[in-house]
Design goal:
The protein contains four helices and six strands; from the N terminus they run ααβββαβββα. It is an alpha+beta fold. The longest helix is centred in the last third of the chain and has 20 residues. It starts with 5 loop residues before the first helix and ends with a helix. It binds methionine sulfoxide (SME).
């Protein structure tokens, strides 16, 4: 058994990956892959990125790289869902029991809990990292810390080199 917590190992791997890839898109794919394969309760992991219409329409969250079952929610308004709540407030949202949250947009009947963490570039929300679990209350302090760390790295990466 390693003495290093798994979340710390993942953070170190992500730092290395951030240096090994040369644009944000492959880095985001790697973040999704790592979290989905290594964190056993993370059953759906994906990014939603904000798309500005440019024609007076409100911005919308558009599904980006993800792993897990296909979701019916490929475009989410900022006033809809847990995803919309995180993007519009710029705050992490953790839901221990999605069946008790009226904002929840169902992706899979197996989902029991969810975390959504905004991604910032120069202080502005540009997207978010969304994770669903088949286990209730899967996202504890350590998980929140890991997912916020991932979102921060992606934000820093995007800031250096827009996707
Ligand atoms: N559950 C999210 C929708 C996205 S799926 O989980 C992939 C929400 O309530 O916004």
């Amino acid at each position: 058994m390693s003495a290093v917590p798994k979340t710390d190992e993942i953070k170190t791997e992500l730092q290395h990956l951030a240096q090994a890839v040369n644009s944000p898109a492959p880095f985001m794919k790697e973040v999704v892959r790592l979290l989905h394969t290594r964190m056993l309760k993370y059953n759906w992991v994906g990014f939603y990125m904000i798309e500005e219409s440019g024609s007076g329409e409100p911005p919308v969250l558009v599904l980006g790289p993800f792993q897990g079952a296909m979701t019916p929610h490929t475009r989410i308004q900022l006033n809809q869902g847990i995803c919309g709540a995180a993007a519009s407030t710029g705050k992490t949202v953790v839901v221990d029991d999605v069946s008790k949250d009226s904002r929840y947009l169902a992706c899979s009947i197996e989902t029991k809990s969810e975390i959504v963490v905004p991604v910032f570039v120069r202080g502005k929300v540009v997207g978010e990292l969304d994770i669903d679990s088949h286990f209730p209350a899967a996202f504890q302090e350590e998980d929140r810390d890991l997912v916020e760390y991932c979102a921060k790295l992606v934000g820093q990466y995007l800031e250096k080199s827009p996707a």
